[in-house]
Specification:
Two copies of one chain form a homodimer.
Chain A: H1 2-9, H2 13-31, H3 38-45, H4 49-56, H5 59-82, H6 88-105, H7 107-118, H8 129-149, H9 157-177, H10 185-199
Helix pairs in contact in A: 1-4, 2-3, 2-5, 2-7, 4-5, 5-6, 6-7, 6-8, 6-9, 6-10, 8-9, 9-10
């Protein structure tokens, strides 16, 4: 009954869910999983506690939902790039730009992911962050090796893969740590191009 | 009197200090500043509490000492590279390899730095992590611009700077997050070389 009242009184259903979703992402990212409370999340979202329990069941539920949404979004984009044909450098640039844009949109999820990897244990429910990390790593590696086979790239595939991943992560980290120094999509494209230029086979060399 | 007893009974003075230092770095890096205790640190170091108070004064004292040692080491290496003459690409490669080697040796400090930037607030005493971050960023940027002026590099200096920093950070992150995939010094050199090749001016282009 309480939840019905919440829905009737408040903004349309989808909006409440979205508000809770982004408020929770912000609270978790700022305070960490352990010390974040349902009260803070609902206060930031401007809704009542029963709304959170209705849509997500619990603090754990909203945490998992945030991560799953971000990762599903990544999978969708990764799958789209995987279907592309053509030059490896174009597909690589496209993949990186998609991932950069995605991370810009899910900065709080990226921050949660970083705090999982680098921060102290938070008692948060298990989430397989490695799956996405490896998926991105493997996709970049695969396109790099295709480019080497087709004669488009030259060099050590592992080194080229890490250089590409480094360019992506550096620009995301800058956004997290020093947003005042962050680059936009065009700036990010220039960073990736430095690395791609270093991978391209030059005639006469 | 207690501290004197500790020193007399235990290993030589310098060794006790070093043991406490590295045990504390490990405990802070694993548990975060807030939940780490003096008891855990001394147990891991295999010494008694008074030894920690004698050498570092407090939990805060040992925390600061760890960070200051790491950053002093960085400053020493940065200053040495700054005095180098010659081609920008050689100085850049040298700087990056020095920083990579340094970070490999101070992995726990790097982990603390990451958890400061990405993790939840830990109530740790203030430490100016940005100083070293900016110093490295500025040094790379300066050598890149010198290389552009001398005609050695071609491209956007900011993009080239981020590509170089990305290569360094990627290899360090791999060591922190997936040590089984980490690269050694030679592997790191190959990653940096991909980026440097992308920065070099090619004749006829």
């Amino acid at each position: 009954m309480a939840t019905t009242a919440v829905i009737r009184r408040g903004p349309p259903e989808q909006k409440v869910r979205e508000k809770l979703h982004s408020a929770a992402a912000r609270v978790f990212a700022r305070k960490g999983y352990a010390t974040a409370t349902v009260r803070e999340i609902v206060e930031m979202a401007g809704v009542t506690k029963p709304a959170l329990y209705y849509y997500f069941g619990s603090k754990e539920g909203v945490y998992k939902a945030i991560l799953e949404t971000g990762f599903r979004d990544f999978e969708t984009r990764a799958n789209a790039v995987e279907k592309m044909k053509g030059r490896a450098s174009i597909r690589l640039r496209r993949l990186c730009r998609e991932v950069f844009a995605l991370m810009q949109r899910h900065l709080d999820v990226v921050r949660l992911m970083h705090s999982f990897y680098y921060g102290p244990p938070q008692g948060a429910p298990f989430f397989d962050f490695d799956r996405a990390l490896f998926r991105f790593h493997d996709m970049v590696g695969k396109i790099v090796r295709q480019g080497v086979r087709s004669g488009e790239f030259r060099g050590n595939p592992e080194a080229m893969t890490l250089a590409v991943l480094g360019a992506c992560n550096e620009c995301i980290d800058l956004e997290l740590v020093h947003p005042e120094m962050a680059v936009d999509g065009a700036g990010f494209g220039r960073v990736i191009d430095v690395v791609l230029r270093g991978m391209e086979r030059k005639d006469g060399r």
